[in-house]
């Protein structure tokens, strides 16, 4: 049973995507089967692995909307042992489309369940927000990795 790790922080620019890509690629380089799921509508993990934006490709949006299975969305990368479920800008609409949907926070967990036997690690790259996309990733995850950028603060409370 694969371990699902969400890489999340509601602040942007702290290294979520860099961490997610490098973690998934490091697992694959160590001959550990890994899947990177790009849960961010900005699709930077998708682009970072060399895949251009493609409106016709099955993406994480289709999983959340129950329009496709996770296995249909998986694409292989150039690195052996690393697969990707890409994102698309339409994923931003899922936040609104799922608002009145029953069990909306379990959509990603349910979609990924059949893949947990095929991968040792499933890494979820979350958007920089605490919205339904991140909530779905947190519900699907067994653990959460929170990248933080250390900065000097001038706040004097």
How many beta-strand segments?
Answer: 6
* Helical run tally: 7
Q: Give the helix level as a range of percent.
A: 25-40%
Describe the largest sheet: 6 strands, mixed
Q: What form results from the Cα inertia axes?
A: globular
In what range is the share of β-strand residues? Answer: 15-25%
Mean pLDDT: 95
Q: Structural class, from secondary structure content?
A: alpha/beta
Oligomer state equals single chain
Radius of gyration: 15 Å
H/E element order: EHEHHHEEHHEHE
- Give the end-to-end Cα distance, rounded to a whole number of Å: 46 Å
Enumerate the strands of the largest sheet in spatial order, edge to edge or round the barrel: 3-4-2-5-1-6
What would you say about this model in short?
The chain has 157 residues and is of the alpha/beta class. Helix content is 32%, strand content 15%.
Describe this structure in words.
The protein has helices spanning 16-29, 44-48, 60-64, 70-73, 91-97, 107-112, 132-140; strands spanning 3-7, 34-38, 75-76, 82-85, 121-125, 143-145. A hairpin with a 5-residue loop joins strand 3 (75-76) and strand 4 (82-85). A 6-stranded mixed beta sheet has the order 3-4-2-5-1-6, with helices on both faces. It has 157 residues and is α/β, with parallel strands linked by helices.
Write the layout of secondary structure elements.
Blueprint: E1 3-7, H1 16-29, E2 34-38, H2 44-48, H3 60-64, H4 70-73, E3 75-76, E4 82-85, H5 91-97, H6 107-112, E5 121-125, H7 132-140, E6 143-145
Parallel strand pairs: 1-5, 1-6, 2-4, 2-5
Antiparallel strand pairs: 3-4
